[in-house]
Every structure is written in structure tokens, then in C-alpha cells.
Amino acid sequence: MALLSFRTRNPQRDRDTDLGRMDRLVQFLRQLRTEIDAERSGLEARYEKAQTSAAFALEAFENGGGEELSSKADDLAVVMQRYHARVAALEKQIAFMESAEMDAKAFHDALAGADPEKRQGGTGFTSSGNVAQPAHD
Known about the structure:
single chain, 3 helices, 2 strands, disordered C terminus
């Protein structure tokens, strides 16, 4: 009579579950990277507009325009500084996402190439009077 009776899942099923999880993680990291890239692209377009407006305001001020043009150019300069800070933050996020994706892919590939029977540590159970042989789903 066996003291313990329990079932374990089939190692291939566990492997497939793990691979699916890694696939979803890689897909999610790619989605985040796409969102970050879209934000950066939008910022670049707004930056170009701000840069053009600042140049026109400064030129108009230098050609005898009112003091408000100088103030506008100064305000636009602050906006462009914020842009640079935000782009730097986004670049760090992109680098992090790329690194995380590479790590997740490497983990996935190692998992995909692993033998499910060997992943269990090769210890397996043997039949004896005290331990039941595990059943697989």
C-alpha cells in the first residue's frame, strides 16, 4: 500500500505552458516598446514645430518685433528642454525593453531546446512499498 498518491502533469504539458507564458511576455514587451516609440515620434513632431516657432519668434524679435516675441522664444526654449529630458527617459525605457525582450527570448529559446524529462532534474520516482509512482495527466 502506498503512503503517498499524487499526480503530476506531463512534462511536455508543463513545457508548453512555460513556452506560452514566455511568448506572451515577449509579445507584451514588444507592445510596450511600440507604445514608447509612438510617444517618442509624437514628441519629435511637436519638437520640430516648437523649434520652428522659436526660430521665427526670435528672428521677428531681432527684426524689431515686440518684447512678447522674446518671451515666446524663451517659453519655447523651456518646452524644448523638457522635450530633451522626456526623450532621454524614453530612450532609457527603450533600452530596458530591448534588454528584457532579449532576456525573455533567451529564456524561451533555452526552454524550447530543453528536454522536458531532463528538466525535472532526472530524479524521477521509482516504485517501492512506500512511494507511489506519479501519474501524468
